[in-house]
């Protein structure tokens, strides 16, 4: 009997709580709605670093950044991060700069790059 009384008491209390919750809700106002905004944690899209720069074969300092100092080969897109159009422009500019004499074509073999200076001659750059 005590259990039945307890169960009916719980059901009446829970019904009162539900009624009080529904009666306390007010209609939503415009100020209460969440503000639409972009995801602050979204990673920025990858962009080409040369898309707003004109590639010229006479700009050797820029072009030398896309060439391996050990082998002299042009780095690929997966290493440079350039878009396809700019990668093609850079490789054409490097080839043109080499043919015009702005950039060196011959490079040391990788095993001889760290040779010690024998004569002690200092080259000023």
UniProtKB/TrEMBL annotation:
MF (Gene Ontology): small ribosomal subunit rRNA binding; structural constituent of ribosome
InterPro entries cross-referenced by the UniProt entry: Ribosomal_bS18, Ribosomal_bS18_CS, Ribosomal_bS18_sf
Gene3D superfamilies: Ribosomal protein S18
UniProt cross-references to PROSITE patterns, sorted A to Z: RIBOSOMAL_S18
Localization per Swiss-Prot or TrEMBL: Mitochondrion
Domain of life according to the entry: Eukaryota
GO aspect biological process, one term: mitochondrial translation
Protein name: Small ribosomal subunit protein bS18m
Keyword annotations: Mitochondrion, Ribonucleoprotein, Ribosomal protein, Transit peptide
Pfam family, one: Ribosomal_S18
Family: Belongs to the bacterial ribosomal protein bS18 family.
Any single GO CC term annotated in Swiss-Prot or TrEMBL for this entry: mitochondrial small ribosomal subunit
Organism in which the protein naturally occurs: Cyprinus carpio carpio
Main location: mitochondrion
């Amino acid at each position: 009997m005590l259990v039945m009384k307890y169960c009916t008491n719980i059901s009446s209390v829970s019904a009162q709580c539900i009624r009080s919750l529904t009666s306390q809700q007010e209609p939503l106002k415009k100020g209460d709605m969440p503000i639409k905004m972009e995801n602050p944690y979204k990673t920025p899209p990858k962009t080409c670093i040369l898309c707003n720069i004109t590639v010229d074969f006479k700009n050797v300092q820029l072009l030398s950044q896309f060439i391996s100092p050990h082998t002299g080969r042009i780095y690929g897109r997966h290493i440079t991060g350039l878009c396809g159009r700019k990668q093609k422009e850079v490789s054409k500019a490097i080839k043109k700069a080499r043919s015009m004499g702005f950039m060196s074509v011959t490079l040391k073999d990788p095993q001889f790059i760290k040779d010690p200076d024998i004569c002690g001659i200092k080259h000023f750059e």
